[in-house]
């Protein structure tokens, strides 16, 4: 098994185009609502990879699927963020698009309209065990579990990683999609994981328990390490059926909470690869989450990034 500072992080997951609309107050049905709208690169898997690179991981690789319409732009943005893109270009489907409606009020709450497009057409044929060469950790986006093809890819990747002794983590991704998938199907897949990084709501949904600490503890009987992300309440860590640490959040005034959980996950994984223990890694994750909510969009600052318009490809 490749471990520690000498190994890479391989992320397998979604790459999408985010259209972020920040509005103040309720949406006005049937008429106009003033908003500030930006088109940004996104996708939970891609965001995690970028935040891991931002946190200091020097070898981050991302396997994802995009349409020809925005392939060049996404590749450029990932390279600029310090990520090695391993993008499959789909000849039929367009790049996935998510419309993020962000309330510009104090809570910066967001609502997503999701067209997964090419991102969830990633399948077993896109996988090669050689992708694990030099890899110390594999991270899977939970969105992979929500279509048959991408779920088969996730199972293939998990099996290959376990055969090589590479630890595997997963972020459940969406409470709404978890309901559609079914909790039992998700938990059956989770049995093969080393690390689960749910949000507070996802942890409660997966266990049927109302208290996040109880939920994290229960999940840790299935997965060796569970880190439940609780936003402004920080994070909970659980092992062997018990909460073993509570890590406080870093205070921040949110502009946009999109990608905060991805930021935590990316920084957490980067810290583990650098040799940090889980509690220190969670503290770094909380710092990254605070940095994320101060920004619009789901990615870290990227000084060398290309155009903000995916249509130009430059």
From TrEMBL:
Biased amino acid composition, Low complexity: 304-314
Record's keyword annotation contains Nucleus: no
A molecular-function term among this protein's GO annotations: kinase activity
Chain ranges of the Carbohydrate kinase PfkB domain: 9-301
Region annotation Disordered: where it falls in the sequence: 292-314
SUPFAM superfamilies xrefs: Ribokinase-like
Residues annotated as signal peptide: none
Coiled-coil segments: none
Pfam annotation, one family: PfkB
Enzyme class: transferase
Enzyme Commission (EC) number: 2.7.1.-
Key words, A-Z: Kinase, Transferase
Protein's UniProt name: Sugar kinase YdjH
Species assigned in the record: Streptomyces cyanogenus
